[in-house]
Amino acid sequence: MRIAMIGTGYVGLVSGICFSDFGHDVVCVDKDPAKIEQLNAGHVPIFEPGLEALMTKNVAAGRLSFTLDLASAMKGADAVFIAVGTPTRRGDGHADLRYVYAAAEEVAHLIEDYTVVVTKSTVPVGTNRQVKQIIRKANKAALFDVASNPEFLREGAAIDDFMRPDRVVVGVQNERAADVMAEIYRPLFLRDFPIVTTDLESAEMIKYAANAFLATKITFINEIAALCEKVGADVKEVSKGMGLDGRIGNRFLHAGPGYGGSCFPKDTKALARIGQEHAVPMQITETVIKVNEEIKRGMIEKLLTLCDGSFNGKTIAVLGVTFKPNTDDMRDAPSLTIVPALVGAGAKVIVTDPQGNHEGETLLPGVVWAEDAYKAVQKADLCVLLTEWNEFRALDLNRIARRMNTPRFADLRNVYSEKDLKRAGFESYAFVGR
Ligand code: NAD
């Protein structure tokens, strides 16, 4: 199969590289000349474990290339994937579809033979039909079908998620498009990974329903954690006891500082908006959005208590600013709520993150960057573990405590035990839900 992939962000790049690894001929396109230049020089512009090596292998095999020119990418393509961003639209929470529609318009003029136009971006119900109309309007003679193929990969584990998915979802309107999609995903089909083939609307809905459900699960345990703190229960024990129930499952039951990232915040908002537009309010999702904001703010209160009621003049070390480990993505990360609150209240904030400084330097003004955790905590009054990178999971706590002005620790990911912290000499500490 020949595939054109529009967008070389987290999803487009991973999908394009993995499709080429399946044996397909893939040309990835982006509008950003700097990204294409970097890719052509053999470097991936994002941090995703294993991605650069997989790219190098497939470029060398002649199956993968990168260009700014969509026309050349679409020459002879069986399918063109739209994997551009769908951020939250300012003001109303709706998914901003302008990049998807602009890509559809460009595609329309370049279709020669039969092509399946596949939307991989997360888009509200009805978008694929809209894409179809845009193409039809711009090119009456075009021979094409549309397909919805939402992506479920997680940043930080993207290659494995793409290569070994829980399922692949494909929404189509006819068998011809279904056959092309089946051929593209044949290597997975052969290895018995389930492929859910459905209509366009259901495919679009599956993605939002799945993300809203996961955001709900996280928020549920975060709310339970807040109650655990008041009643003297330990949320880690509670999660364990709950998660062993097969109907509940133990994943996404780790209490923390609130969900963030490039998907959950924007997709929950978009689902709430879709519900409002159809007069079926998504009350659970709307509450989840609200509670998640409160959870994030609750973390600031927790830190304030550790700082004796005032951040002013305190030195606070923050370990980890990306929304989760193994990614450089900072979109809607809890750090973007917590760190500015500390800076704004007069604290000197020293941050360290194995990959976050590239974006963080613009997104977190007023902080000082340190090379590692030990440098960050030098003379600090409080150390906050915000993202559980491996580097921060096995800290020499004695060394951390010794370097600090007042050894206090806020473990917002519940990595350490009370015993660990006490033994290391921390005079006060806090967890989430314990
Ligand atoms: P991203 O912002 O990282 O990348 C989008 C890329 O598309 C950018 O490089 C941009 O320059 C490029 N682009 C935009 N318009 C273009 C055009 N007309 N032609 C060529 N290139 C164009 O976005 P992302 O994180 O990869 O997300 C893409 C979509 O996938 C979103 O809808 C998102 O919700 C969904 N998704 C993301 C994840 C994730 O973990 N990031 C997971 C599942 C689904």
TrEMBL record:
Q: In which pathway does it act?
A: Nucleotide-sugar biosynthesis; UDP-alpha-D-glucuronate biosynthesis; UDP-alpha-D-glucuronate from UDP-alpha-D-glucose: step 1/1
Query: Where does the chain bind substrate?
Result: F152, L153, R154, E155, K207, F252, L253, H254, A255, G256, G260, K324
The UniProt catalytic activity note for this protein reads:
UDP-alpha-D-glucose + 2 NAD(+) + H2O = UDP-alpha-D-glucuronate + 2 NADH + 3 H(+)
EC nos = 1.1.1.22
Q: Name one GO biological process term.
A: UDP-glucuronate biosynthetic process
Quote the catalytic residue positions.
C263
Where does the record place the UDP-glucose/GDP-mannose dehydrogenase C-terminal domain? 317-418
Any one GO molecular function term? NAD binding
Q: Give the highest taxon in the source lineage.
A: Bacteria
The protein's matches in InterPro entries, at most eight in alphabetical order, are given as:
6-PGluconate_DH-like_C_sf, NAD(P)-bd_dom_sf, UDP-Glc/GDP-Man, UDP-Glc/GDP-Man_DH_C, UDP-Glc/GDP-Man_DH_C_sf, UDP-Glc/GDP-Man_DH_dimer, UDP-Glc/GDP-Man_DH_N, UDPglc_DH_bac
Record PANTHER family: UDP-GLUCOSE 6-DEHYDROGENASE TUAD
| Name assigned to this protein | UDP-glucose 6-dehydrogenase
- Naturally occurring in which organism (per UniProt): Nereida ignava
Give the gene name: tuaD
